[in-house]
Amino acid sequence: MVVNYIFASHIGKRRLVNEDSANVFNLEDGLLSIVCDGLGGNRAGDVASKTAVEAIHKFFMENPQLDHLNRINNALIEAHSTLLRMGSESAHYKGMATTAVVVFIAGNTVYWGHIGDSRIYLLIDGELSQVTKDHSLVQKMVDNGLITSKQAEKHPHRNIIVKALGEDKDCEPDCDYFYVHDDQQFKLFLCTDGVCGVLNAKEIKNVLSQGDNLEQISQSFFDIVEEYGAPDNFSYVIINNI
Q1: With a threshold of 0.90, does the pTM exceed it?
Q2: Which domains, from first to last, does the chain contain?
């Protein structure tokens, strides 16, 4: 399967530092995409997100023998360990943490992993689905029937996450995979909460449905998030098949 992609990371209108990181790597056996959001309430969020992207990429490069799902899971655990080690060696980095979403496309299979509240969306056959499930306080409240998904979108505690790379001793990312048929046109959208915390699912679907020109779609995401005030850093990767 042949794919196109574009990625971008923006500081937004209210932040002094961009604590997001996003990148895409063409490897010999597939396409690796990573988006991370350094936690602003912790120290060195920008270092945390950049370090996580680098550690995940490095692990993938050095461990091609692993099956891809374990590769993602272990790469996230390695990034987690790297952040903890840096925090133990320097007071400046102690407590730094980041979210992460990872997608690896090999043939017709999409492997993914995530921790935190950055998200992966899939647009296929005209329908948008959220692949990941937030590791957040409000998601737990939704799961327990305390609030609705609609209420969660505007809840005052929606930015509190319960899992992140570098934050706790244990790292338990969610990982899975799905297949895409050759005749199915799709788009994958990886993003930080600077996007999905500003735009709802319908708005994300509308932008992704604007055609196949990824530069135009990327510009549309930038324009609408900025129009809504861009209160946070916002980063994303957009992938479609040809």
Answers
A1: yes
A2: 3-134+163-241 (3.60.40.10)
